[in-house]
From TrEMBL:
Stretches assigned to the HTH lacI-type domain: 10-64
Gene source species: Paenibacillus pabuli
Protein name: LacI family transcriptional regulator
Pfam families: LacI, Peripla_BP_3
InterPro entries, A to Z: HTH_LacI, LacI/GalR-like_sensor, Lambda_DNA-bd_dom_sf, Peripla_BP_I
GO molecular function, one term: transcription cis-regulatory region binding
Alphabetical UniProt keywords: DNA-binding, Repressor, Transcription, Transcription regulation
SMART domains cross-referenced by the UniProt entry: HTH_LACI
SUPFAM superfamilies with a match to the protein in the record: lambda repressor-like DNA-binding domains, Periplasmic binding protein-like I
Coiled coil: none
Length: 339
């Protein structure tokens, strides 16, 4: 016997007719597409509520071959720069209606390789990758063969065809070293970072350019690479202090490196900002509150995250063609470590 009390399932077409819009427009609203005018969005949402429509995401994904999942792989969320970047990227991606799958590599090339494979297996629509300092050759091949949109962020990978969002590291290093040179420093060390990474190379280019423009003599012995951590900064500082003639100023690869450097200098009775000037890079939240407050280069990680998300979204929906690059301009923030 037929149940006359059973309700017919409300469809998206019903919602569209009720709201006076096309089915395509109604579909874009339920997928939270930002291009829909607010008045139209509200009209559709009111119809959804009034009719009791329930969006079947699984069925929609099967029809469109889209998962609305995007992957974001970063190096280490304990690093304040990375966590700020992630906040910007995730918030913007969620605004676009995506669900974010997060992976962290701990700056390990093998973990990075495995995470990329896992993300692809989950049928993500696109990937934002903050590469580890060193990447495997097979990772480069895999990324070039990806069938989904890819955006690299914060660190470039050579021989990779992908959109990129980051800061002008060369200009940032140039600003930092120029500031120290104008204060009269002749010997300025460069501590921290992995030499094989693009972020170190670009900073080194800015460091060299500032030396050339201010007629300073570059000394390879006071350019000391290390892991991009505060512990790495401590190790680099100890090596520097064992040199025959320590410099009067230090440019650090990052704020984390600077914190490690200042910790060692303080233990040795060296007063930062008086006996030796120190400049960091990133301007993470801790930089202003450190003792003494750190002079550093603002690299706007949250803004980079937002730009990376925008680039990825544009690629996913087919709005952009060719390779896009979004390079933000750095700013020098002068505080007590180099007044």
């Amino acid at each position: 016997m037929k149940n006359t009390n059973s309700k017919k399932r409300v469809t998206l077409k019903d919602v569209a007719e009720h709201a006076g819009v096309s089915t395509t427009t109604a579909s874009l609203v339920v997928r939270n597409n930002p291009r829909i005018p607010q008045a139209t969005r509200e009209r559709v949402l009111n119809s959804i509520e009034e009719l009791g429509y329930i969006y079947d995401r699984v069925a929609a994904n099967m029809r469109s071959q889209s998962s609305n999942l995007v992957g974001v792989i970063v190096t280490n969320i304990a690093n304040k720069f990375i966590s700020e970047f992630l906040i910007g990227a995730q918030n913007k991606l969620e605004e676009f209606g995506y669900t974010v799958l997060l992976g962290t590599t701990s700056d390990n090339a093998t973990k990075q390789q495995n995470l990329i494979s896992t993300m692809v297996e989950h049928r993500i629509d696109g990937l934002i990758l903050n590469p580890s300092s060193i990447s495997l050759e097979k990772t480069v091949k895999q990324l070039n063969n990806l069938k989904i949109p890819l955006v690299l962020a914060n660190r470039e990978l050579y021989n990779i065809s992908a959109d990129y969002a980051g800061i002008d590291y060369e200009e940032g290093a140039y600003l930092a070293v120029t500031h120290l040179a104008k204060k009269g420093h002749q010997r300025i060390a460069f501590l921290g970072g992995v030499k094989e990474s693009s972020t170190w190379t670009k900073r080194m280019d800015g460091y060299r350019k500032a030396f050339k423009d201010h007629n300073l003599e570059l000394e390879e012995s006071i350019i000391i690479a290390s892991d991009p951590t505060s512990e790495g900064g401590e190790e680099a500082a100890r090596v520097l202090l064992n040199s025959p003639k320590p410099p009067s100023a230090i440019f650090c690869f990052s704020d984390l490196i600077a914190f490690g450097v200042m910790k060692v200098l303080t233990k040795e009775g060296i007063v930062v900002g008086r006996d030796v000037d120190v400049v960091g890079f990133d301007n993470i939240p801790d930089a202003e509150n450190y003792h003494p407050p750190l002079t550093t280069v603002s690299s706007f990680p949250r803004s980079i995250g937002i730009q990376a998300a925008k680039l990825l979204h544009s690629k996913i929906i087919g709005e952009s063609e060719g390779l896009q690059r979004m390079i933000l301009k750095p700013e020098l923030v002068i505080r007590d470590t180099s007044k």
